[in-house]
Amino acid sequence: MRIMLIADEPTGVLWEHLDKSILEGLDLIISCGDLPPKYLDFIVTFAPCPLFYVHGNHDDSYEYTPPTGCDCIEDKVVVYKGIRFLGIGGSQRYKDGKNQYTEKEMKAKISQINKSIKYRKGIDILVTHAPAKGLGDSEDLPHRGFECVRQLVDKHKPKYMFHGHVHMNYGPKVPRIINYNETTIVNGYRYYILDIDSSQFNYNGCIWDRIKVWFDRIITLNGYFI
Predict the structure, then answer these.
(1) What is the DSSP code string of 97-133?
(2) CATH number of 2-225: 3.20.20.150, 3.60.21.10, 3.40.50.300, 2.40.110.10?
C-alpha cells in the first residue's frame, strides 16, 4: 500500500504548481494536521484515493469549514483495506484552543477511545498531530509530546505511527523516521510517501465489519468502514 502523509505546511507541488505524478499510484492520503481545509479539498479532488485527517492545534477553523470530500478519523478506529487506523488530534495546551489538551485531558480522551480499540482488537497504524513524548518531540511545551500517547504505543504496538507538529526545518536534529521497538514512527511534515507491506496486517474484523466493508465496496468502492 502506498500512503502519502501531509502535515503542517502546504507545498507548492501539491497546490499552486500541482505535480499530478506525485499522486499517481496512491492508495491513501493522511493529513496529520495544521493544514488549510482548502488545501485538503484541492488535493482530494485530484487524488485517486481517500484522504483521512486529524486536527492540528491550528485547525480550529475546521469546526466551521471542514475539508470536503475527506474523512476525519479522530477518536475512533477506522478500518481501510484490512488495516486498523486510529486518529488522535491536537497538541499540548499552551494557550486557548479547541484542539489543545493538557496531559490529563489527553489521557481522558484516550480512555474514551479504548472501547473502540478493544472492539477492533488493537490498532495497526496510529495517526496523531503531536508526537509521543520523547519520540520526535521537542522540550518546549507547545511541541512536547504526550506521555499517554507513548503509553498507548507501548501497550498496543502499532506497526506505524504518523505525526506532524514538529517541523523538520526547526533544526537538523528533527528526524523524519524513528524506529521504536516494533513501531516505525514517521514525521509527515510537508509531504512524505511511503510504501508499506499490506501482508503484515491480518485484521479480518467481526462478522458485522465484513458485512459493512462488503456493502461499502459495492456501493461506494471505498472499502473502508468506521
Answers:
(1) -TTEE-HHHHHHHHHHHHHHHHHTTS-SEEEESSPBT
(2) 3.60.21.10
